Amino acid sequence: MGLFMILFTLIGGITLSAQSSINGTFSRKAGTIETTFLTFLTGTMFLTIFVLFFGNGNIPALLEAPKWQLSAAFLGTMYLLLTVLAVPKIGVIATNIAGIAGQLVIGVIIDHFGWFNSLVIELDIKRIFSLLFMLISLYFIYKGNKRSSEPTEA
Amino acid sequence: MRILFYLLALLAGAALSFEGAIYAELGKAIGQLETSFYNFFMGSIILGLLWLFFGKGSLSYTLEAPKWLLLGGVLGVVYLTSIVVSVPFVGVGVTMVAVIIGQLVMSMIIEHFGWLGSKKTRINKEKILAVISMVVALILIN
User: Given this model, what pLDDT does residue B28 score?
Assistant: First the structure.
């Protein structure tokens, strides 16, 4: 069961990279804002069906939720908008690596201080090394991208 | 100029982390699927407004584009669902590592073959090293 779930999650990651490629292509003709808008709109349509059939939460509780929690929607919007903007310029893999790096750094900071009621996990040697490897990864993707785009552009 | 787009992508990831931490709280109150729904619903409104005031592209291209170009939204939902389903079974750490490995390896393949309309850029030593370093970083963080 565990292995099956891991495979399932791998597919989740694959769909995410397909999404950034497709959106990058679509945005070249339709525009960045338009592409992001369409992604959210069709996503909402699908989720409406999902929530109606499989939802067992409490949507009206949204009205009582603290506003700072609701403001996360602006962050979600920003993420997609910036991704659509970056893919046509630096490519799918570089956008994803840089995105993950940003995610890890902030994730480690949030854990360290226990912001937003999260579990406090202090920054230790292992995590410092982790951030170091992440920087190495960013460096390699920048170099690698430069190298493989040079012969085609020249 | 290129470096600016790397910074924007970093910023996108940072936004995603804040979003995840905040939505974890919201999810406790209203449910996870409902939280995803709220995110997409609110996102549609925010982008609808942005589009009305600042949209310079052509939304009408939606009707002419090949249908596979319209799959972005569904894929986002598939991604979210896969995470929501697997976390209770294998935990957040393993889920995160598996998602990112899937994402990075697939991105590399897509670009190598120039699939889905992406610019064709070949896999090289540096890219593979970048993915390996990222995997090491993820394992160390957990």
Answer: 86
- Determine which of B34, B112, B142 to mutate to test the interface with A (most A C-beta atoms within 10 Å): B34
Binding-face residues of A in 25-84 toward B, CB within 8 A: 25-48, 50-51, 54-59, 61-62, 64-65, 68-83
- Closest Cβ–Cβ partner in A62, A117, A130 for B30: A62
- For residue B67, give the DSSP letter: G
For chain A, what is the domain count? 1
According to the model, what pLDDT value does residue A119 have?
79
Q: Tens of pLDDT along B83-128?
A: 877 877 877 778 888 888 899 999 999 989 999 988 888 889 999 9
Nearest CA of chain B to the CA of A148: how many Å?
6
Its ipTM equals 0.88
Which residues 6+ apart lie within 8 Å of A83 measured at CB? A20, A23, A95, A99, B9, B12
Total residue length of chain B? 142
As a whole number of angstroms, the distance between CA B82 and CA A54 comes to 15
Contacts of A147 in chain B (CB under 8 A): 124, 126
Q: By residue range, what is the domain housing residue A121? A: 2-153
DSSP per residue, chain A: -HHHHHHHHHHHHHHHHHHHHHHHHHHHHH-HHHHHHHHHHHHHHHHHHHHHHH--S-GGGGGTS-HHHHTHHHHHHHHHHHHHHHHHHH-HHHHHHHHHHHHHHHHHHHHHHTGGGPPP----HHHHHHHHHHHHHHHHHHHHHHHHHHHHH-
